[in-house]
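dude i think i finally got it to work??
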Amino acid sequence: MKFLYDFFPILLFFIAYKMYDIYVATAVAMVAAAVQTLGFWLKHRRFEKMHLVTLGLLLVFGGLTLLLHDPVFIKWKPTVINWLFAIVFLGSHWIGDKPLVERMMSHAIQAPLPVWLRLSWMWVIFFVGIGLLNLYVAFNYSEEAWVNFKLFGMLGITFAFVIGQAFYLSRYIEDHKKVEEES
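look at this
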């Protein structure tokens, strides 16, 4: 359910694009992100950082797309988001005592620091790469191909990457379970 909630603006963007055009889709995504952010706040009395970042970038890039009637701005948004994530993951190597990926997952998996650092670097490279791939598709293929890639391609690539990460971490999950069973 959380997965659908998090991808609510992207799904509505895709549907609105197929029914109308890039400008209606952009406006729909902006409203959907605002509803998503407000809905999360009403339910939990706090904001989810990802929702705030998405909303902020949608308002800026979507606003420029609508104001200047130029879809180039909305095409840049996924790249900017992914590059911001790359910067955050990279910055976490020097800010705080643990890489961000370890902070997010150490409650479930116990692994040595070099594993967390390798994993963090993989995410940095992934986010930079997917951002570059978005720009390649956005500016070398049709607008419709980019919209399809934005939903299906980026989602599929991310899913495959996460599955690869799970395989990479699986030996540490098993080791963690053995330690718990022996206790």
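The chain has a mean pLDDT of 91.
im so relieved honestly
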